[in-house]
Fold each of these.
Amino acid sequence: MPIAILVSFLMLLTLPASAAEESRVGPRIETNQSYLEEVMRQPSLDISDPISVFAYVLANLPPRVKVYPTENYFYFKFLHGGIPYAGNIRLDVNERDSGRIHFAYFEDLAEWKAEEQVHHVLLDQSHGVLVEKLGPLVYSVMHNNVRVVFELNDLTNVKPPPGLLRADERLIGPMFDESGLGFFLVFNTRLKIFHYILDETRGVAETFTEAEGYPRILIGRRTGFAFYRDIRIDRKILIGVFEGNARVNNYFDGPFDQLPDNFIEGETLRSAILEVEPHLEGRIDRLGISPGGADRYMIAPYRHYRTVEDLAIFDECATSKEIPEDLYYGCFVFIEDYEEGDGIGTAEVPTEESPAAETEATPLKAGVQR
């Protein structure tokens, strides 16, 4: 082997995992063979013991990982005894600086079976887990002499470009979803509604297709996320998440669970929530979380859809001559009728009394999220 080629080969072997990944040209190839061989492996882990599972997960991570989602969840999956499991390590903004992290795992969800038990534990030194802050948004987690550095996604300098927001809109913060898409969470101070606006400043890992019959509705071919091309401003507002993804809580279940926790300034979020739901005064912290962290105010103004026809209401409202111009942005808020249990819900045409379809106050379990 020529010396130059040998040196290059040895350098590649010594590269960190992330650098080696970047050096690869073309997509990763996954085979049915590797999947089946993993499925057929004999289980060797005490799946009922969260500490054992945490130790196994940590030991199988590279020395440094990147946590992309902005509610600071590091997601993982594995197969055990022929059963797919999913879970997360969460460096929660209210816990990590006190040396605590959340760990949760469960049998992966599927539409054809009932939900299984979630194994969850809040880990700290009493469990032999040492969490240390190394710098802004960088933390070390150590257990059983295994140390992994978790680098949180730094969006400090991510700002909406000039002209993206209206004068009556307030930025809550920049977000990055586990789907791989970025958003700006925005509050309309006049109509008292929230929007997720697609962040296109850093590139968009998606290809969009126009919905048949509705050229302003764009549907992601990878994520299934549906956006409306705003008639008034060159931007895309999230209006839909495919219902099947929401039901199984996969990476494409919507950005409701990836709020910009690390980048919310002061009372920006709580004040917006209280403008919508004043009865929550004294019942939520500045991130919209209830005392003890059991519930969190849910911001999900988009629709869970199955077909393009489910999304038609947005376009019909936005283009209707019967909707007053000052209520136009109320057309992009839809609330699921969870009480009926169908995951679809109903919407109302915006009026002066109700400028949005409805308000979007629904509790969401925090800390043990799937």
Note: The helical segments are 3-14, 17-23, 32-39, 50-59, 243-248, 268-276, 308-318.
Amino acid sequence: MKLLIILERCRTHGCLSQQIAIAIDGGAGSSQNARRMPPPVHRTAGFSLVELTLALGVAAVCLIALLGLLPTSLRTQQSSVEQTVANDVMTEILGDLRADVRLPPGQASKETVSGFGLHGHWLAASQPDTLYFTNEGKWTGQLNASTPPADAALRAKVTYLFPPNASTSAAKITVNWPPQIDPTAPGAPAPMGFVETFIAINR
């Protein structure tokens, strides 16, 4: 609209040149376009305080649950280790009994030299034998002691099933922990853990 008025005046009165009109229209147009442009929006990526609080709360709940499972997992691991050692102890006792029972004719037992010193032949006075072992499954060297040694962690009790027949000798082996508890004693409390087995040895 302004351009038409200016051009009309230039044609009729000759007061302004065409270059000035174009310059004025260009200035007005650029100013008008600048006013119509929306202001630039600057957005910064990040987390709000509420999101951070929720994330920390979820992480804290998960950590508390994991920490609560640690004692149970430690007890389970310790029990599995003790059961493994107890099974090894039973295997050693079984090997000792087999070696003592299967003696060639006329050969004396070597229990006093090597082995645990067990009865072996299921004597007429078939009393149980009690042995004590360390955490590593090593024999403490004491047989039928009234109290367990200081380094004992396992108690092994061999109960001979008397009388043996002509071809087979049978026994029951019980290994329990802690060694202070004898589960076969009347009125004794239950041990923390135990393993037992029946063995049959061919003569």
Note: Residues 49-101 form the longest helix (53 residues).
